[in-house]
Amino acid sequence: MTLGLFNPRRWYYILGRKKITELIILCVFIVFFYGPLIHLFILAFADKYEYPWVLPREFGIRWWEYVFKQKSLVSSMSLSFTFAFLSTAISMVICLPAAFILSRYNFKGRKLIMLSFLIGNAFPKIGLYTSIGIIYYKLGLMGTFVGVLIIHMIESMMIMIWLPTSAFRSVPRQMEEAARDVGAGPVRTFFSITLPLAWPGIAVAAVFAFIASLGENQGTLLVGLPTYKTMPVEMYGVILDYPATAGAVFALILMIPHLLLLLLLRRYIGPETLSKGFKMN
Amino acid sequence: MAEDIKLEIRNMTKKYKTGDGVENINLKVRKGELVTLLGPSGCGKTTILRTIAGFLKCDEGEILIDGKRIDHLPPEKRPTAMVFQNYNLWPHMTVYENLAFGLKLRKVPKQERDRQIKEILELVKMSGMEKKYPSQLSGGQQQRIAIARCLLLKPDVLLLDEPFSALDAKIRSQMREELRKLQIDLKITVVFVTHDQEEAMALSDRIVVMEKGHIVQVDTPANIYENPINKYVASFIGEMNFIELEDKTIAVRPEHVSVKSGEGNGIKGTVRAVMILGHYVEITVDSEYGIIKAYVPNESVVSYYPGESVTLSFSKFLEYPKDEKVVM
Ligand SMILES: Nc1ncnc2c1ncn2[C@@H]1O[C@H](COP(=O)(O)OP(=O)(O)O)[C@@H](O)[C@H]1O
Ligand SMILES: [Mg+2]
């Protein structure tokens, strides 16, 4: 009875100072990290949630039905995925050959080119979009599908160059030479040996590009409005116009693709592939 | 010459931008012969092999197979096949797929392909491994498959670049024997690269000893052992005692050193160590010319003990001019 398992001093002496500090930091972290998430979940499934109750009085999927009945929200989802898919696919087609060349030929200025792909991400985006906006007005790309697509590709190009370049680099030359040796030409060698061996790195790049495109909002907001409203753009409106519960549902829906893709990443690709991907050599 | 020359390298030079490389290489390999390129790391063995396979373009000279020039052809068009030290098999393909890749390129029908793969796997003692991935195999097994992949394509010349050096000693000598047997049975022409003189001696019809991008001596293992052309070759092949005199260097194989107890006519010294190595004994003697090793038959040795005074004489020795430096 008098063991006093809840006495903090006992804990302190059982665990030691270092452990207890770690434990406290962990608890704080969990509250900060999962607190909002849990709140979001509660909100999203709260059918009846009124002051002064701390928890909802009725749980259900009323707001899910509500959100899925809003045409604009549903169409924004499909639009988001269209942009994500197209921008990833197109930047793959453009960047993979470039990445292969960057990985195989050591010409002068190779590193400069690699670095130049980072520059687009080095400035505050809003400045970049302002200048893009000026160009877009001249070219008549404002408010067009292609205009938005280009914005999304700016996001994915950097990653589509860097990760695949190092993925191609990490394919041992002798693998390719062995293929040439048994009679495969350069093209056949690329598609049968190099590409499959570099595939994990390329897949990581594709996943990142996809996620980046799904999350893109500033540029889309500037260029795409009023015709092209993707999920994150729609989110602004949702926050303003809908009840908090609907916003929660929407936020959860936004999270699903990220979670799925990250799970895929974890399942198929180790952290070393990721860290290798950002080495410049 | 009546002999059938399969591979010929004429006046070949290949220099890298750094100035390293090989120079003035001349070599003829007969049909069904196993020739080994032997030399320390960095002497240009791989460079020669890669110019034959087509991964490097030679700066000068010609490479011929069956009398026809092949040096302008890309690797996929050359009738050669190469086994690399590492990274042999494609890790994303099964053993079967690794083997079938080259056959498919040659449009061999599936049934024929399956039959040949089965046959070759039997030959390299890897039957039933079709469905395994390379990472599921040991290093030795991977090298067997790599050799099988080359043999399947019936190359005119098989090239092997230190294929066994990543394996442990026991498997290495086993693989060596098997390769030699295969090579003799199938009568294939082989150029083999190694830095291991023991491997070269055990395996080769002829050895090409290389030093710093040049060929120093080409001969049978026995002739190279008996008559190394210079101090460098003498020091590289087998055990050798070097005795520095004023005007020359004398080289003696340990088996040509005879040891007698007590004082007498010859080189004086004291026994430093006696080591029994099976059927012979290695005696290390501290002589007036430095350390000299002798191999003597087991039975005659009972009397030698460390510290004992002995006299050495040589039944056979070689002489080299003084100025040559041995690089080892
Ligand atoms: N791609 C290359 N570029 C520059 N130098 C090289 C290259 N490959 C090999 N070398 C140099 O050429 C020499 C011979 O190399 P190599 O043929 O690989 O020797 P080995 O196979 O006998 O160890 C070495 O000094 C090596 O450093
Ligand atoms: Mg080498």
How would you describe this structure in keywords?
heterodimer, A: mainly alpha, MetI-like fold, two-stranded antiparallel sheet, B: 328 residues, alpha+beta, OB fold (Dihydrolipoamide Acetyltransferase, E2P), 2 domains, six-stranded mixed sheet, five-stranded antiparallel sheet, 8 helices, 34% strand, binds magnesium ion
Explained architecture:
The complex is a heterodimer of chains A (about 280) and B (about 325). Chain A is mainly α. Chain A has twelve helices and two strands, in the order αββααααααααααα. The termini of chain A are far apart. The relative contact order of chain A is 0.12. Chain B has about 325 residues and is α+β, with helices and mostly antiparallel strands. Chain B folds into two domains: about 1-230, 3-Layer(aba) Sandwich (Rossmann fold), CATH 3.40.50; about 240-320, Nucleic acid-binding proteins (OB fold (Dihydrolipoamide Acetyltransferase, E2P), Beta Barrel). Chain B contains eight helices and 18 strands. A six-stranded mixed beta sheet of chain B has the order 6-7-8-3-9-10, sandwiched between helices. A five-stranded antiparallel beta sheet of chain B has the order 13-17-14-15-16, with no helix packed on it. In chain B, α2 crosses α3 (about 110-125), α2 (about 95-105) packs parallel to α4 and α3 packs across α4 (about 140-150). Chain B is elongated and about 80 Å long. Chains A and B meet through α7 and α8 of A and β6 and α2 of B. Adenosine-5'-diphosphate binds near residues 21, 42, 44 and 45 of chain B.
Question: What's the CATH topology name of the largest domain in chain B?
Answer: Rossmann fold
| Class of secondary structure makeup of chain A | mainly alpha
CATH architecture name of the largest domain in chain A: Orthogonal Bundle
Count of discrete structural domains of chain B: 2
